[in-house]
Amino acid sequence: MRMPPVVASRLRATDVRHFAGDSTFHQVARAVCTADAAIARKELPECWAMAERIHDEFWRSEPPRRVVDVAAGHGLLGWFLLALCYQARAPLPVVYAVDERMPSSAGKIRDSFGEAFPRLRAQHRYIVGDARDVEATSDTLVAGLHACGGLSDIVIDVALEGSSALALVPCCHSTKISHDAAAAAKVGLDEAIDAARARRLAAAGWAVERDVLCSREITPKNGLILGRPPSVSVGEARPLYPRSLPPLSFGWRGVVRGS
């Protein structure tokens, strides 16, 4: 997804003029600009690429009823995914954007998307809390876009414990993360760590795919890990709500409590 070359490094209301088309991408881009929240320019194409990939991969058969966006920041990924589902007339999930703090930009984005896509407002909740408190279920997709350092492993933990689908773009690889030093010397630290993460999922029975999310021009940390859990048996109970997340009638913003 190429951005107009005249767009500044941070998107403001005046940048709406660069997105005058009728495509879903242009519609969400206008909503981001209208929010006037000074969102970093690169977050638009990278969040859009992640939302498109999630939609293409996981809305083919039985779509997830919930999406947990870990380290959600502004909450863009969830809004973009909801917009794609809405335009495709696909089932709308409830998106829980989870982060340790809610930036003021998230409220501006909520208001802007609520005006541009009124049907989606009730589908997006911002949860202030620790990702380790999230307990997902088999009808949940757990997502992490640029989950920094060990947070990527927490995202994987949540998916494994809940038998949940996974879409993860790791970031901030570090020698502090457990890794095979010999493999790192041979293929590089980033590859060694992410390959080990993929093997961990595969060992647990997940169907794992590794790919590139987008071009390095958009973001150099573009490695994508997709995971699908083993098939859930017909007789398996599927709890309506994750233990640590609020029920669907809960307001837009909440606080995750520990178990």
TrEMBL record:
Pfam families in the cross-refs: Methyltransf_32 (PF13679)
Domain named Methyltransferase: residues: 46-174
Residue runs in coiled coils: none
Annotated InterPro entries: Methyltranfer_dom (IPR025714), SAM-dependent_MTases_sf (IPR029063)
GO CC terms: cytoplasm
Entry protein name: Methyltransferase domain-containing protein
Organism: Pelagomonas calceolata
